């Protein structure tokens, strides 16, 4: 992510305010990997100047995670396991992946969503398997909010505390540059690992 793109995001959030935060956080919650690790610190820098504004921003980010999760949840709930078994091979998904997700939800239940919302990368994709598992929707949204709030708060707090040094302290820009590049590296490595392991076993992915 270039400095120009960061400047663009800051400008968008500064001009669009909470509405832009809602849009960006909803998009990343809909299984589209726009890192909240970048969105929320920039939002904290641009919008949060008091403790109440910080709490409001974390609340908006958490509610937006709920909003963006709805389509992914219902795609999983309506299509269910049969849809994934029929079309999953086109996304390199196997029956083994489904069985593993089912076992995880059966063993840990709703806490899966609560913990998943606190973890990078996983929080972006947790809604779809929750839908496939037919997790109670009210419980899903409650746990999504509870799990998302501390994550959004911590990231926005980082932006609030360090944001005032964005233009005066070059170390902050260097830190944030390393931070978002680390996030992007994890995303790329995770995707590459998934593609490599599943492509290697693609002959066993036909799960009709």
Q: If you had to describe this structure to a student in words, what would you say it looks like?
A:
With 208 residues, this protein is mainly α. The chain has one domain. The chain has nine helices and no strands.
Topology overview:
Elements: H1 3-29, H2 36-47, H3 51-87, H4 95-108, H5 111-116, H6 122-125, H7 127-132, H8 137-163, H9 170-200
Summarize the structure.
This protein is mainly α. 79% of the residues lie in helices and 0% in strands.
Key phrases:
0% strand, mainly alpha, 208 residues, single chain, 9 helices
Helix content: over 70%
For the record, the count of structural domains works out to: 1
Low-confidence stretches: none
Distance separating the two termini: 40 Å
Number of helices: 9
Order of helices and strands: HHHHHHHHH
Q: What coarse outline follows from CA principal-axis ratios?
A: globular
Report the mean per-residue pLDDT as an integer.
76
In terms of structural class, how would the helical and strand content be classed?
Answer: mainly alpha
Report the radius of gyration as a whole number of Å. Answer: 18 Å
Major sheet = none
**Could you tell me the strand content as a percent range?**
under 5%
Strand elements, count: 0
């Amino acid at each position: 992510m270039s400095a120009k793109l960061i400047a663009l995001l800051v400008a968008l959030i500064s001009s669009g305010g909470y509405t832009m935060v809602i849009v960006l956080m909803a998009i990343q919650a809909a299984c589209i990997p726009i890192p909240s690790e970048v969105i929320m610190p920039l939002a904290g820098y641009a919008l949060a100047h008091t403790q109440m504004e910080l709490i409001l921003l974390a609340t908006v980010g958490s509610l937006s995670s709920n909003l963006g999760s709805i389509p992914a949840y219902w795609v999983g709930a309506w299509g269910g396991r049969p849809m994934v078994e029929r079309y999953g091979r086109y996304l390199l998904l196997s029956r083994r992946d489904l069985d593993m997700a089912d076992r995880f939800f059966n063993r840990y239940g709703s806490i899966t969503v609560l913990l998943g919302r606190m973890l990078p990368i996983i929080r972006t994709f947790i809604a779809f398997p929750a839908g496939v598992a037919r997790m109670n929707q009210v419980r899903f949204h409650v746990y999504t909010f509870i799990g998302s709030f501390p994550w959004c708060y911590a990231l926005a707090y980082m932006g609030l505390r360090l944001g005032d040094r964005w233009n005066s302290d070059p170390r902050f820009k260097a830190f944030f540059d390393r931070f978002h590049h680390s996030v992007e590296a994890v995303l790329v490595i995770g995707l590459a690992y998934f593609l490599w392991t599943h492509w290697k076993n693609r002959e066993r992915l036909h799960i009709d």
